[in-house]
UniProtKB/TrEMBL annotation:
Annotated EC: 2.6.1.9
Pfam families: Aminotran_1_2 (PF00155)
UniProt source species: Devosia ginsengisoli
Record has Phosphoprotein as a keyword: no
Protein name: Histidinol-phosphate aminotransferase
Modification N6-(pyridoxal phosphate)lysine, positions: K223
Length: 365
């Protein structure tokens, strides 16, 4: 008979980590429209779907271990040396690997207050301390980030554009941040929403990665129609790529994902339609909702963050939308913005539905 008082014990700090909270979905079989996870409103690239089906003919074999098929496509389209690319099981996989590689006991990682909620999880899991820095009007503050750097700082996490706010830093500001860092601090530019940015002063980060020895850029396919396939990719200096490749899983991207990702990368027409649709309805919804009772923070991503007078009003708005079959993201529990809701850009019908419901709610209140 075993003694239940004696059992395997997690490493110190693991049970202090709050788990990641995904956006809510509708009940199985419901017709609810999910606007809580920033997924593609136009589905998946037809070319990616066909490539995924083709992979079904080869499910008995291991995938090529370095994701060469996918790296080749990414290098071709984005003008990158394929040897500087690492692919992963979603960008979360790569973020975890970066934390595991460059953070440890006694180290610190710096992030802005409302940055992606995965950053504290992976930092603490590596035994390091997360340092959260206050923002200026829901936008990362370069001076505040630099002021938070100490001799213990090893990593800066920067989502650009940021989730859940949709705000971004210009190329000049990102470069100013990098210029203020010691060369032994790794700047991680998380460009998960880069496909949707239309701001002229934005840079995805590739040029800076090419110029510096302490910058990496992380991307994902999840926002462009392949969330279910779990594909992420990273570009970095040769020494970072070498370190990550030493500890990543040898077959961490499955063959269907590799083939679908390569096809999606080359399907520039579908990606352009997705970007155009998003810009049109993001700007339309922002204009429709922004008022004395609702503030929409300007967004460059495929979602908007709406701020209500208080947390009670935000909760009422969430429930009202949910009751009408529109599920958005509550951002109080994960991000500490209880008066806000994050709304993914969806179909025209969904956007008009959200606007009509929230505007009517404001008039009633």
């Amino acid at each position: 008979m075993s003694d239940d008082s004696i059992r395997p014990v997690p490493q110190p700090g693991i049970l202090d980590i709050a788990p990641y909270l995904p956006g809510k979905s509708g009940a199985p079989g419901s017709n609810a429209i999910k606007l809580s996870a920033n997924e593609s409103p136009l589905g998946t690239s037809p070319k990616a779907m066909e490539a995924f089906r083709t992979a079904a003919e080869h499910l008995e074999i291991y995938p090529e271990g370095s994701s060469k098929i996918l790296r080749t496509a990414l290098a071709e389209v984005h003008g990158i040396d394929p040897d500087r690319i690492v692919c992963g099981n979603g960008s979360d996989d790569l973020l975890h690997l970066l934390a595991q590689t460059y953070l440890g006991e006694g180290d610190e990682a710096v992030m802005n207050r409302y940055g992606f909620s995965v950053y504290p999880i992976i930092t603490k899991a590596a035994g390091a301390k997360i340092v959260m820095v206050e923002e200026t009007d829901y936008t990362a503050d370069v001076d505040a980030l630099l002021a938070a750097v100490t001799e213990k700082t090893k990593v800066i996490w920067l989502a650009n554009p940021n989730n859940p706010t949709g705000t971004y830093l210009s190329d000049a500001e990102v470069r100013r941040l990098h210029a203020g860092l010691r060369p032994d601090i790794l700047l991680v530019i998380d460009s998960a929403y880069a496909e949707y940015v239309i701001a002229a002063d934005y840079s995805v980060g590739l040029e800076l990665v090419g110029e510096a020895s302490n910058v990496v850029m992380v991307r994902t396919f999840s926002k462009m129609g392949l969330a279910a396939a779990r594909i992420g990719w990273m570009v970095g200096p040769a020494h970072v790529v070498d370190a990550i490749n030493r500890i990543r899983g040898p077959f961490n991207v499955n063959l269907p994902a590799q083939l679908a990702g390569a096809a999606a990368t080359r399907d520039v027409e579908f990606n352009a339609r997705l970007k155009e649709h998003n810009a049109k309805w993001r700007d339309w919804l922002t204009a429709e909702l922004h008022s004395n009772s609702m503030r929409v923070v300007p967004s460059q991503a495929n979602f908007i963050m709406v701020l209500f007078p208080d947390a009670e009003f935000a909760a009422k708005a969430f429930e009202t939308l949910r009751e009408r079959g529109l599920i958005v993201r509550e951002i109080g529990p994960s991000y500490g913005i209880p008066e806000g809701l994050r709304i993914s850009i969806g179909s025209e019908e969904a956007m008009r539905g959200v606007a009509g419901i929230l505007k009517a709610l404001v008039k009633i209140s």
